[in-house]
Amino acid sequence: MTTEDYKALLPSLPKQPGVYQFLDEEGKILYVGKAKNLKNRIASYFGSKKHQMAKTRTMVKHAERVKYTIVDTEADALLLENTLIKKYQPRYNVMLKDDKSYSYICIKKERFPRVFITRRVFKDGSTYFGPYTSKGRIKIILELVKTLFPLRNCNFNLSEDNIQKGKFKVCLEYHIKNCLGPCEGLETEAHYNEKIEQIKNILRGNFGPVKRHFQEQMQELATNLEFEKAQQLKDKLTAFEDYQGKSTVVSTTIRDVDVFSIASEEKLAFVNYVKVVNGAIINTYTQEMVKNLDTDEADLLAYVIPDLRERFNSIAPEIVVPFEVELADPEITQTIPQRGDKRKLLELSQKNVKYFLLQRKKEALAKIRKKTSSERILRTLQEDLQMDELPMHIECFDNSNMQGSFPVSSCVVFKNAKPSKKDYRHFNIKTVEGPDDFASMEEVVRRRYTRLIKEDQPLPNLVIIDGGKGQLSASAKIFRELGILDKVTLIGIAKRLEEIFFPDDPIPLYINKKSESLKLIQQARNEAHRFAITFHRNQRSRNFTSTELTNIQGVGEKSATALLQHFGSVKKIKVATITDMTQVVSTSIAKKVKTYFSEEEE
What CATH class has 257-359? Predict the structure, then answer.
């Protein structure tokens, strides 16, 4: 994915929490990440600052597109990220690939229920609250609950018969007032269950009575000048107020459901699908549809729901929809939720489909603007250069050498005012000895356009030569030989004053420095220069490796490359010990290299 692709996507990115995915050209997920602000987080992959990790640069390079899912909170983003990573095992994700899950608070289904932290949810009738993304916070909450409501923590079977027979004795927890002794019948089951109901209210977020209780205690402590204890209670109250009792990403009350929502406009409609299995979101997808008739949203949903369920192999017995839909399968239960977890899931789906619709509108508008902008620039360039036709196809050449060694040339191609990198070409200069830019330009121009003519490929509308009158004259000579000088506009651009030259015209053309057409010419020139320099460096590096190290008998290209990559230069290899070199090559090769350079110094 290129920076240009990102810039096109940028206007539609939301500034909300969510999970983003980088996908390759086959649609395979390369990386899953979470974000407090999706727009800012995705932007960080395409900023001017280079990524420090090579893995990140490689991932972005191989990514074809980005998709995202909006959620309500950072905690939800973390949970959904965890679910997706475990399901898809993306190549570039390292964290969260283990089998760990987030913590829950369990109220055990038993006589005198215990309340404890667990990572596993069983269908045993117990009540579970969570999941919790912060282990520190869940401990504070559980400590606070047990401070307010003393509970047992033993695992005895406190049946009525066992208590009457006196099988158990109170332990230290009773004596330090952490338990009221139900094991000896010192606390009734009704009193204990009343505490459990209050704990459930707290974990569901009904904090009113608890807050009043804390405030009264804090006031009493402050009156008695016990400020430290009052502050401790205040800290615990703050933890309670920050606490979220439930998450829309994972729910212990919802099992397998499919959630659908729809957004439409005059010609298009979009249906968002959220697949929930065992209470966790495992997939989200938005289907785009073209409306051929004035079809209402209920009919569109009825049409697409069976298709999406079949595509994603869903056997969920229940679907959550914003309104009633006529489906062929009468066994599917339809739910139109008004409140609760299912309502939150529906709102999440609706939020995503609305953003998807907005993104499509912005992309369409960006394409229109881009097309208009490109056409305007090309028409300006056509007028400035007095061309007969629009320069839809532009090619630019540049040479590169170092004191005549490793001479190379590049040809970059612009189509519709944008780089067409798949059409770039580079050339090794074959027939020129020494630093002769004019002869080098003649060679590459001849090779390039002889081949295009031979293969009956279209010629460019405009050819730009990076250089002054000399390089331009050399190129014009070849154009005349090939009989294409009157078919292609040929110009040269001199670097110092940005002068534009035409063949056989000694007077240069000066284009306004702020003109979009000059900026396009400069962009093509700079791109050709960059491409030539990069190729030149690669050639020098390749030749350097072969001449310096592969001349040693028994040292191949792989070993030479490994040594250079490890040490950085031949100079460092010369002073390296055999032990140092054996880290990357065999002992026999290390000895040969050491012997070679030792003999060279004698």
Answer: alpha beta
